[in-house]
Amino acid sequence: MSGASGTPYAAAVLRALLAAGESVDLVVSRASRLTLLDETGIPFRDAHWQADLREWLSRGADGKPGTFEVDIAGVRHWSAGDLAAGPSSGSYPVKGMLIVPASTACVAGVALGLSKDLLQRAAGVTLKERRKLVVAVRETPLNGQTLRHLVALDDAGASVVPASPGFYAGATHIQDLVDFVAGRVLDAAGVEHGLYRRWKGELGNGT
Fold this sequence. Notes:
CATH architecture: 3-Layer(aba) Sandwich
Oligomer: single chain
Distance between the termini: 43 Å
Number of domains: 1
CATH superfamily: Flavin prenyltransferase-like
Shape: globular
Order of helices and strands: HEHHEEHHEHEH
Radius of gyration: 17 Å
CATH class: Alpha Beta
Number of helices: 7
């Protein structure tokens, strides 16, 4: 998670990954902790990350506690400042990496290979190892510099998935729109889910 607005997207992706039986190495950037606090009121503290994560994931997009029941046993947390962490090495066994949400600063750092923190370092490792990197950029409007960075990531093999909800899946609540974006992120990562109704080539009732 980087510092862009859109923490509900990250929560939906995390819940779906765990529901699919995937183990997760979680990196929450320093800026993302501030965004999480601002959007949810939940501080994300290294010493209490399990309790904070459990509380956060239990909430829906409307912020209501207890909306979801989540088992976080499959999550391993790494501090964003720990450049000696497992995901900083290409020999650490992972399938790929999802950056949700991705700020323009994070996009720039990864595109330029800055590796200023574990999130950027792990993304660089993912690219060099030719693993799947999905970048869910959450910003609007996008200037030319950011667009060039996104093209550079695409050229490097990453999948760029803008956090742009689709409305054809019959959304009736905010959570539906959040789940659509989360589902598209997981589609790009090759993870099965049931977060949204897929398009079947029919309009309305099919007539």
